[in-house]
Write a structure and sequence with these properties.
There is one protein chain. The protein has 385 residues and is α/β, with parallel strands linked by helices. The protein is elongated, with a radius of gyration of 22 Å. The mean pLDDT is 95. The chain is built from eleven helices and 17 strands. The chain folds into two domains: 133 residues, Lyase, Ornithine Decarboxylase, Chain A, domain 1, CATH 2.40.37.20; 222 residues, TIM Barrel (Alpha-Beta Barrel), CATH 3.20.20. Helices cover 30% and strands 25% of the residues. The strands form two sheets. Strands 1, 10, 11, 12, 13, 14, 15, 16 and 17 form a nine-stranded mixed β-sheet that branches. The protein has an eight-stranded parallel β-sheet with strand order 2-9-8-7-6-5-4-3.
Length: 385
C-alpha cells in the first residue's frame, strides 16, 4: 500500500526517523551512565514499544490503566504509573500484581498515600511508591523542606503493602525553556535536590534505593546524572514542533505527521482548507509563545516531508474537521499552489495530543506503508480503540 491509497486524515509514522530518535537517546543514556526507563504514554503502542525497548523488554512507565494492562499482557513486568493515582485505580491493577507485575506509583500527599496503602492491604497486593519531589513548582510533588516529605517517608517505610522505592522529580519546566544554559541549570537543580533529599532520608534511617528524573529535554541536555539511577522520557521517540522550538529536536527528527487532503481553495479570498481540523490535529498551541508560532501544525510536502513555501505554511486555524492553511504572516496561499486533491503532511505541535485521535499508526518507509501499529487509547482496560 502507498500513501495515495490512504483515506485522510491519517496518522503516519516515519520508521527511519523513529528508529534514529530511539538510538540517539539510548546512546545519550549510555553516555550519562543512567538507566533509561521509556515512558510509553507517547507511543501507546506495543509494536512501537518493541522498537523502543528492544532486548530490554522489562521496565517502562505508563500513565493510564489501559496502558498498564496492555503492556503487562505484552510481557513488561515492571511498570511505573506516573500520573496521579487514587485508591480505586488499584482494583484493575491488583490481579496483574498477583500475576507478577512489579507496580510503582508516585505519591506526594500523605492522606492519599495512606488511602492507597489501605486499599493495597485490603487487596493483599504490594505497591511500590516513589515520593514525587517538587523542584520547580511545575506540577505535583512535595518539597523536601516540607514536614510532609518526612511524614511520607515514614509512612512508606513502615507500611506492609505500600513500600518506599525512592524519589522522583519531573522536569516539566524544561519544556518551557528555549535557552539551553537555563535548561542545563534547571536539570542540575533537579539532580542535586534529589541527591540531597535522599541523603536526608538515609540519615533518618530510611532506605531510598532509586532516584529518577522525568522529561526528554532533561535527558537530552543533562551534563551529569551522577547518583541518579533512572531517566524517564517519552516524547523523544517521535519528537514534535514544541521540542524543535526549544532546540532539542530538528524538523528532520519529527517522526509523526498527519496526512491530509486539500479540500477547498476559495479564489476570492484565497482561503485554502484541508480535511484535518481540531479533532485530527489537536488544539494544542504549545508553540504559540516560541520564536516561531506554528499555528496548529507545519504543512509539508506529502512525499518528501519538506516544509512548504519558505517553511512558513501552517495550519492557521481549525474548526472541527477542517484546517485553514495560510502563511505564518496571515497571507493566503497563492492560487494553484495547493489545488483541491493535493496531499500534504502536517507536523504536530504536541505529538502526544495529536496521536491520541487515532487508533494507530501507518508506519511509512519511503512512499510505502510497511505496517499498521495499533495504539492503546482510552483510560481503562478494555476501552474501545
Amino acid at each position: 500500500m502507498k500513501l495515495q491509497d490512504l483515506q485522510t486524515p491519517a496518522l503516519l509514522l516515519s520508521l527511519d526517523r523513529f528508529e534514529r530518535n530511539v538510538a540517539r537517546m539510548n546512546e545519550r543514556a549510555d553516555f550519562l551512565r543512567v538507566y533509561l526507563r521509556p515512558h510509553l504514554k507517547t507511543c501507546k503502542s506495543v509494536d512501537a514499544a518493541r522498537h523502543v525497548l528492544g532486548d530490554l523488554w522489562s521496565s517502562a512507565s505508563v500513565s493510564t490503566l489501559a496502558e498498564t494492562t496492555a503492556f503487562f499482557e505484552a510481557g513488561i513486568l515492571d511498570l511505573r504509573y506516573t500520573a496521579p493515582f487514587s485508591p480505586e485505580k488499584l482494583l484493575p491493577v491488583a490481579p496483574l500484581i498477583q500475576q507478577g507485575l512489579h507496580f510503582e506509583i508516585l505519591v506526594g500527599d500523605t492522606a492519599n498515600a495512606a488511602a492507597i496503602g489501605e486499599q493495597a492491604q485490603r487487596l493483599s497486593v504490594p505497591v511500590h511508591a516513589l515520593i514525587e519531589v517538587d523542584v520547580d513548582g511545575y506540577r505535583g510533588g512535595v518539597s523536601p523542606a516540607a514536614p510532609e516529605f518526612r511524614q511520607l517517608a515514614e509512612l512508606l517505610d513502615t507500611h506492609e503493602y505500600l513500600q518506599l522505592r525512592g524519589l522522583y522529580s519531573y522536569g516539566g519546566s524544561t519544556y518551557r525553556l528555549a535557552d539551553k544554559t537555563e535548561r542545563v541549570a534547571l536539570i542540575e537543580r533537579h539532580r542535586s535536590t534529589l541527591v540531597d533529599a535522599a541523603a536526608e532520608l538515609r540519615g533518618y534511617g530510611h532506605a531510598c534505593p532509586s532516584l529518577g528524573i522525568g522529561s526528554s529535554p532533561a535527558l537530552h541536555d543533562a551534563e551529569s546524572y551522577s547518583e541518579v539511577d533512572e531517566a524517564c522520557a517519552g516524547v523523544y521517540v517521535f519528537q514534535d514542533l514544541a521540542q524543535r522550538g526549544i532546540g532539542v529536536a530538528t524538523l528532520d527528527d519529527i517522526a509523526v505527521s498527519v496526512l491530509a487532503t486539500v479540500v477547498q481553495h476559495l479564489p476570492t479570498s484565497g482561503r485554502t482548507y484541508i480535511d484535518a481540523g481540531a479533532l485530527a490535529l489537536a488544539q494544542d498551541r504549545s508553540t504559540a509563545n516560541q520564536a516561531e508560532d506554528q499555528g496548529y501544525g507545519l504543512v509539508c510536502d506529502a512525499d518528501t516531508l519538506q516544509p512548504l513555501g519558505d517553511g512558513d505554511v501552517i495550519v492557521a486555524s481549525v474548526s472541527q474537521e477542517h484546517g485553514l492553511v495560510q502563511r505564518r504572516d496571515g497571507s493566503p496561499i497563492a492560487a494553484g499552489t495547493l489545488s483541491p486533491g493535493t496531499r500534504v503532511r502536517v507536523l504536530p505541535n504536541h505529538v502526544c495530543m495529536t496521536a491520541n485521535a487515532y487508533p494507530g499508526y501507518h508506519v511509512v518507509s519511503g512512499d510505502r506503508i510497511e505496517a499498521w501499529w495499533p495504539r492503546v487509547n482510552g483510560w481503562s482496560p478494555g476501552s474501545p480503540p
